Amino acid sequence: MEKKKILNVQKEHWEKTFSEESDFFGDEPSDPARRAADLFSKETKKVILEIGGGQGRDTLFFARRVFQVTVLDYSQKGLEDIENKASGLGLSGLIRTVLHDIRKPLPFDDEAFDACFSHMLYCMALTTAELERLSGEIRRVLRPGGINVYTVRHKGDAHFGRGIHRGEDMYEMGGFIVHFFDREKVRHLSAGYDILAIDELEEGELPRKLFMVTMKKNRSGRQ
Predict the structure, then answer these.
(1) Distances in Å between the alpha carbon of 173 and those of 46, 50, 88, 218, 221?
(2) Strand locations in 22-141, DSSP E?
């Protein structure tokens, strides 16, 4: 199977995963989401785009914090789970779901959002060229001074270099493809932003080793 087809199969894998388990990542918000929410509140960012919302553990948390959240994912099942949970919690008025493949241009107007959050979306089965386009698209839809917060697994993670190599710094284990980052790649993808922080975090039982990257859209469009 050629590389592009292998990467495309990930969509089907996530649909199957979400269909089999309604809370695959658990129901508690991630630590990066908690940190991002505090920053967004401090910076008075209220209109949020979340990319790769999964089944909504962070989406629902943002809505509880009274952010207006547009959550985008390419899993129909994941978005249905979010809608059902939001309805049950009385949060539907604060959450909008959008089915979309982020390898395509984002379906939003320029400067539509105050901030963007994505937890381990950047380290999915995306090539560096696709990540460059995504980072540029996020910058386009952010308002002046908008904040982009994302997390990725980095090369200090125990799974880096293990499993099946799928090109660049991507490796497949258990059916999931992960794109591992180093600080150079973070800087490479920061064109048009000012990097405010690159924090190192841990998550889960392995534990997974993460970068939490916080960037602010700059005026010049240059790194």
Answers:
(1) 37, 26, 35, 37, 37
(2) 47-51, 68-73, 95-99, 113-119
User: At residue 63, what are phi and psi to the nearest 5 degrees?
Assistant: -65, -40
Tokens at residue 11, please? 């969509």
Q: Confirm if 139 and 166 have CB atoms less than 8 A apart.
A: no
Distances (CA, A) of 145 to 41, 112, 114, 151: 14, 12, 8, 20
Quick one: how far is CA 162 from the chain centroid? 23
DSSP string, 165-216: E-STTEEEETTEEEE-B-HHHHHHTTTTEEEEEEEEEEETTTTEEEEEEEEE
Q: Write out pLDDT tens, residues 158-209.
A: 999 999 999 999 999 888 899 999 999 999 999 999 999 999 999 988 899 9
β-bridge partners, 203: 208
Give a yes or no: residue 223 inside a domain.
Answer: no
Range of the structural domain that residue 94 is part of: 3-217
Does residue 79 belong to any structural domain of this protein? yes
CATH number at residue 203: 3.40.50.150
Q: Is residue 123 part of a domain?
A: yes
Q: Count the domains in the chain.
A: 1
Q: Is the pTM of this model over 0.70?
A: yes
> Would you say residue 222 lies in a domain?
no
Whether omega before 207 lies within 30 degrees of 0, making that bond cis, reads: yes
